[in-house]
Write a structure and sequence with these properties.
Blueprint (H helix, E strand, L loop, with lengths): L1 H37 L4 H72 L1 H4 L2 H26 L11 H50 L7 H90 L4 H9 L1
């Protein structure tokens, strides 16, 4: 608008200047005719006088034109300087607004990432509570099964029942391990939903920056490094926690298998020892019965040889 006004002013001044030139021309012609009519000077002198005055007027007109041109240049420079100052002020305000907008956006995303639904998701918390509850039930079931070994101890025992008991114990252990793996899979799926929600929030923040004030590069430079870094840090933290939980479950599985195997081997050795003792006792009992039978037969033969009358027996014993 100012540029148009300056051009309009310049055109008006030039128009006035041209109008003044036309008037000066008519005035000079008029006075040339008057001087010629008075015949005060010769015609060549009149022309020299008029030319001299015309040259003075031309110099003045040229000075006016230079002044008008300089005025136009000064006005344009002042306008450009004003526009430059205004642009600088606008750019400063725009930069301050961008900084505030970026800070507000980063703070909002940081609060979103620090919220309870992201740090401790209710769905994951529910899965963990359910896992601990069912884990206690399965462990109690396994403990009850372990207590049934008392009914299989000697002398009322059976190797087939002992093998069946050990097979059931392994089944319970595998069932508990499979349940742990299933729980870990469900927990990872819940966290996957959280990561998708975080990425959706990042995309939402990018759309909030998708204005004319922000270029695509500025929006990308703000969102990509910092926001994805926050999401990545949380992912790494969660993965470390899940890895620790996985390793704990693996350790428990190995320890349980080893303990179950040791317990089964212990009872097998106890049964073997019992059977060995039983076999030894049986042999000793058979040997004892054999010796007793031999003694009975010996006494029977002796009784058959001795006299029947007690006095004769007594006399024989004395002799």
């Amino acid at each position: 608008l100012q540029k148009q006004e300056i051009k309009k002013l310049d055109e008006t001044l030039h128009s006035l200047e041209f109008s003044r030139v036309d008037k000066l021309k008519s005035v000079l012609k008029k006075y040339v005719e008057i001087i010629e009519k008075t015949s005060y000077l010769m015609q060549p002198d009149v022309y020299r006088l008029i030319n001299k005055e015309a040259m003075i007027i031309n110099h003045a007109l040229l000075g006016n034109r230079r002044a008008l041109a300089q005025l136009f240049v000064n006005l344009m420079e002042a306008r450009l300087q004003q526009e430059l100052d205004s642009h600088r002020r606008w750019q400063g305000l725009m930069d301050a607004w961008k900084a505030l907008k970026k800070e507000d956006l980063v703070q909002g995303f940081s609060e979103f990432m620090a919220s309870e639904k992201i740090q401790t998701p209710p769905a994951v918390k529910k899965e963990l509570e359910t896992m601990m509850k069912n884990q206690s039930i399965l462990q109690q079931k396994r403990l009850d099964h372990l207590c049934t070994i008392c009914d299989l101890l000697p002398p009322s025992y059976s190797r087939a029942q002992l093998m069946e008991w050990y097979s059931s114990l392994n089944s319970l252990n595998k069932h508990l391990d499979a349940y742990h793996m299933d729980c870990m899979m469900r927990i990872r799926l819940q966290y996957e939903k959280i990561w998708q929600e975080c990425l959706a929030q990042v995309q939402k923040c990018r759309q909030l920056l998708d204005w004319k004030a922000f270029t695509e590069e500025e929006a990308e430079s703000l969102v990509s490094p910092s926001f994805f870094q926050m999401v990545g840090c949380l992912q790494s933290k969660v993965e470390e926690e899940l890895e620790v939980l996985d390793k704990s479950f693996e350790t428990v599985v190995k320890w349980t298998e080893q303990q179950s195997s040791d317990l089964f081997n212990y009872f097998q050795e106890a049964v073997n020892l019992w059977e060995t003792h039983q076999s030894v006792l049986l042999m000793q009992e058979m040997e004892l019965e054999k010796r007793m039978e031999q003694q009975r037969q010996k006494h029977r033969r002796e009784n058959q040889v001795w006299p029947r009358h007690p006095a004769i027996k007594l006399e024989q014993m004395r002799n």
